Each structure stands twice: as C-alpha cells, then as structure tokens.
C-alpha cells in the first residue's frame, strides 16, 4: 500500500536485496554473477519506493557497482563500465522524476580533491563521490543541479600548473556580478597579465552564491583579499 516499504535486512545476500527492490519498484533488474556480497540495511521508518532505490544505489556504490536504466531493464554493472553500458546519465528510480546520477570522467584534475572542494555546492539531498580507479566523479542530484555541477567541473578540468581549487562562499555580494568584477580587475591589462593570471579561472555558482576559484596559491590568496575588500 501507500504506507511505504519496511526495510530490515541483516546480512542478506545482495541479489536477495535486489530482488526485493525489483518487486517493490515493479522494474526488472539484470545483474552479472559478480554481484555478490552481503548487505545490512535497516530503516527505522518505512521508506518510499524512491528511497528504497536510493538505498540500493548506495549499497551498490560501496561495492563499486551502479545501475544503468535503459528504460526496459535496469542493469547492475561495475561503475567503471557504466559509461559504456548505455549512457552516462543513470536514472534514480522509476518515480524520482529528474533525480539522476551522472559519471563525470576527469582528465586533468583528481577526483578525490575536486569532490572534497566542490562538496559545499551539492544540494542537501545530493551526493558527490570520487571513484579513484577511473578518476571519475559520481554526482547524484536533481537533474538541473547535476547539469550545473557538470558545467562547473568542465570549466575546471583543464591543464593547469600547480593550481588549487577553492570555493569562496559570499555573504552579501552577488556571485555572478562579483566574478565579472574580479575578472575586470585581474585582467584589466591583459598584456601585463602573467601566464599564471591568464590561467586563473573564477566560476560563479548562483545557487549557493559562491565563487569557484582555480588559481595558484598566491593568486587564490589575492582573490580572497579582493573579495573581502569589495
């Protein structure tokens, strides 16, 4: 009925839990033999179908597995294979409209570092997990937040030189306007701008009213001082 699902599993085999979720969601799951191991999931209160699916996702994630929904079947595959197993955007359950998990492969920045730095930008229901072996970020959130994070990551994931990424939360100033103003100040004389300064990036994040700054440690410090002074 509508009272939600009671989840109380103590060290059950993962395939047994998958079958339970399959019955609860009315969706068919296909998984490889290598989906093994035990799972303990206890929820003090009944959960919705979407929450049950999210629990499955996190139980899979800690084992390096994820789901790929092709509309007919939900396949359980190793995270590293998910990109080739049917698209990078993975649905988060049948009724969780707009809630997606996306894998973002990184070329130049480390997944662990960037996940730590950008975690303040994730919504309270979302998650941002680094997957070290393939240097990939796994972002789970509402679709528009996932797209926003992907855009920020794309701006940051370029060749750099001893740069660090810093998130500066703003109390009063508007992120978009301040980013433009800082760029004007820092690049006012582009001929004289050093190579480091030209490589600096200041990306506004409107949702959290923060600036994501990519710069050398000394330039980052300079930008922080400018922010305090403006």
UniProtKB/TrEMBL annotation:
Keywords: Membrane, Signal. The keyword Membrane applies. Pfam families: Secretin_N (PF03958), type_II_gspD_N0 (PF21305). Residues 7-76 form the GspD-like N0 domain. Its main location: membrane. One of its GO terms (cellular component) is membrane. It is found in: Membrane. This is NolW-like domain-containing protein. GO terms for biological process: protein secretion. Residues 101-160, 165-230 form the NolW-like domain.
């Amino acid at each position: 009925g509508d009272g939600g699902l009671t989840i109380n599993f103590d060290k059950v085999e993962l395939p047994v839990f998958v079958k339970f979720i399959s019955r609860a969601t009315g969706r068919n799951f296909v998984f490889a033999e290598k989906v093994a191991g035990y799972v303990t999931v206890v929820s003090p209160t009944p959960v919705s179908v979407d929450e049950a699916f999210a629990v499955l996702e996190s139980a899979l994630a800690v084992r390096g597995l994820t789901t790929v929904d092709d509309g007919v079947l939900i396949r359980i595959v190793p995270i590293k294979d998910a990109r080739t197993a049917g698209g990078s955007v993975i649905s988060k359950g049948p009724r969780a409209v707009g809630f997606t998990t996306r894998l973002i492969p990184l070329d130049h920045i480390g997944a662990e570092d960037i996940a730590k730095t950008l975690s303040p930008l994730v919504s309270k229901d979302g998650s941002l997990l680094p997957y070290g072996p393939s240097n990939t970020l796994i972002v789970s959130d509402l679709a528009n937040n996932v797209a926003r994070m992907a855009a920020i990551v794309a701006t940051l994931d370029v060749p750099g030189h001893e740069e660090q990424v810093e998130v500066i939360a703003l109390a009063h100033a508007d992120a978009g306007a301040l980013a433009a103003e800082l760029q004007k100040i820092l690049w006012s004389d582009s001929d004289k701008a050093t190579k480091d300064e030209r490589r600096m990036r200041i990306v506004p994040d409107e949702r959290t009213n923060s600036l994501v700054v990519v710069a050398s440690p000394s330039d980052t410090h300079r930008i922080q001082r400018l922010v305090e002074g403006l």
